[in-house]
Amino acid sequence: MIANRISQFLPSPTLSLNATIKKMQSEGQEVINLTAGEPDFQPPQILKEALVKAVQEENHHHYTPVSGIVELRQAIAQKYKQENDIEYTPEEIIVGTGAKQVLHNTLLSLVNPSEEVIVHTPIWSTYIEQIKIAQGIPVLIDLKPPFQLRAEDILPKISSKTKVLILNYPCNPTGMTIDTPELEKIAGLAIKHNFWIISDEIYEKILFDRRKHTSIASLGLDTKNRTLTVSGLSKSHAITGWRLGWGCGPKQLIEAMTNLQSQTTSGASSIIQQAAISAFLDTESSIRMTQAYQERRDFLVRELSQIKDLDVFTPHGTFYLFVGISKLLNSKYPNSAAWCQGLLEKQRVAVVPGESFLAEGYFRLSFAASISDLQKTVKRIQHFCSSINS
Ligand SMILES: Cc1ncc(COP(=O)(O)O)c(C=O)c1O
Fold this sequence. Notes:
Elements: H1 4-7, H2 13-26, E1 32-33, H3 45-56, H4 70-84, E2 93-96, H5 99-110, E3 116-121, H6 126-133, E4 137-142, H7 151-154, E5 162-168, H8 180-193, E6 196-200, H9 221-224, E7 227-232, E8 245-248, H10 251-262, H11 270-276, H12 284-304, E9 311-312, E10 320-324, H13 336-347, E11 349-350, E12 352-353, E13 362-366, H14 371-389
Parallel strand pairs: 1-11, 3-4, 3-5, 5-6, 6-7
Antiparallel strand pairs: 2-8, 7-8, 9-10, 10-13, 12-13
């Protein structure tokens, strides 16, 4: 009864894991849930007030232009000019219902059946499933620790069918970013071999140790003309549920995405778009959240590094820690899925197995959680690891 295309891709793994945890919690079990990819902070007050105003006073209740209200696209253009050194016009910007939807529209607008899309792993698995939905072929770069993407890793994956390279930095799940000299080399490859870049920079504001983010589209017109920069407010402003994201790129691509969106979701929510304009007046809250994440990262890296046989890699940004457990796999826990299931059942700590990011032998822990939960987590992981070793 159900169309074949649905069985061609996997549903979101973190969503189903969260359903299991919610069930355990509803049965009265105290689970520390470190699976979710969302901030544990409240959105800035200015955003909440702008939303109420959009509803109560300004009455923004009707359809908007498909690609988004011009005031919001202007605010996004201004952000890229000031913060990222890229000049976009509002016609080069589309607003969608979350970065996820924008990515889906981009892949559907760029990729023909059988064309190849290069993706570095470990990675957020949504890209892979969306490539399959677009009938493209995912071509994977299997990065090893410390998971830094280099142009030389991309080169052997390029073929005559390569249409797109997807970059995600800082990266979900490794937290690693890409430095400017490497981005220059990657841009050089895209120009030489004539492929597109989709650059998902949704974690750009969450960088530690005074690292600066460089958008690959800022590296020159040749690069900008073949890049779709994707971002949104979900992570930077703690409004994952509001569903607002955007893509910036060449006008022709934005027009194609707008046509597609006009026959699917139409414009994003009118009141959310209106409120989102005020997010660009608030630069403080993402700085504050990032400081808190950095303290938690430092705590976790220090404490978890002391646990025998865990491999801890210090993330440059995001709120994720990607931890190696291959030395702790055995006949009882032969893979990361079984290991994470064991940790959940024995110690009531939920983390996401590496398989969900196309990387066996790891788990992803989200430190968008209170320091007291993270302190308990360290103890519980310690107990679980020593029970395996004994
Ligand atoms: C790398 C990456 N891109 C995009 C998204 C989706 O963002 P949005 O909530 O705007 O759809 C996520 C969410 O987890 C993500 O990790």
